[in-house]
Amino acid sequence: MAKNKKISRKELLSQQDEFLTYSAKLLQYAAQHKKQLAAALGVLFAVGIAVSGFQYFSAQNEKKAFALVAQHHHRYETLASQQSGAEAYRAVEKDFKAIIDDYSGTRAARIAALMLANISYQGGDYDTAIALYGQNMKAFEHDPAIQSLMLSNLGYCQEAKKEYEAAAQHFDQIVQGNRFIMKDDALFSLARVYDGMGAKEKRLAALNRLVSDYKDSIYHDVARELVAGLK
Questions:
Q1: What is the rounded distance in angstroms from the CA atom of residue 27 to the CA atom of residue 49?
Q2: What is the DSSP letter of 83?
Q3: Distance between CA atoms of 46 and 52, rounded to whole angstroms?
């Protein structure tokens, strides 16, 4: 069971890397193909120049920030392949925090915060991860896939701290939300958390729903065996 979950989460984290690369390319393209504002007279001309300058500055800031995010994330991946997650996390923590502070308000800073939350989680610093996920949840309200991952990781962090009721609330939020993904993962996690809480009926209900509604899930066969064992 642990092996399946780990593989699934690695695949989800790789989707974030693809999202980061795609976003960086979009910003780079926008900066390189920016149209010139038409000249105007008086106040309109001054306003046009000011707006153009702000957009250019913003795009340049985003490009610099995304480049730093990619650089430090690559360094983290390299370190994580050579040492423990906790050691790799401590090695890059200050770098990601610097991006978040120096480029506050940019999309890149929000991505950096999300990555640092994931790295904190992998490094066992659950309190920092919980704080970062909570602080940045609203920033990704238009990205249900990313919010699903954030809610799931919040649940995992709280489960690791044995805060089962809080963990169950976040997993259940994924299950009940119409726009969220990873519902099968959330149901399986709910069953595990309910087991930790000693809530046998809720555990069985979560497993039954997983078996009946998500027949293609990697958790399906395991859930079915668990249900059979509970009857």
A1: 20
A2: S
A3: 10
Q: What are the tokens at 149?
A: 């991952």
CB-based contacts of 132, cutoff 8 Å, min separation 6: 113, 114, 116, 117, 120
Question: What does the chain come to in residues?
Answer: 231
Q: How many CA atoms lie within 13 A of 216 on its CB side?
A: 1
Residue 13's closest CA among 145, 192, 174? Answer: 145
3-state helix, strand, coil in the chain (%, to 5): 80, 0, 20
Torsion of CA 125, 126, 127, 130, to 10 degrees: 130
Q: How many helices (H) and strands (E) in the chain?
A: 10, 0
Positive or negative, the CA dihedral 14, 86, 79, 97 is positive
Lowest pLDDT segment from 32-46, 155-169, 190-204, 205-219 = 32-46
Q: What is the pLDDT of residues 201-218, one digit of tens each?
A: 999 999 999 999 999 999
Nearest to 152 by CA among 9, 16, 2, 38: 9
pLDDT digits (tens, 9 = 90+) for 36-59: 333 333 333 343 333 344 344 467
For residues 183 and 30, what is the distance between their CA atoms, to the nearest angstrom? 35
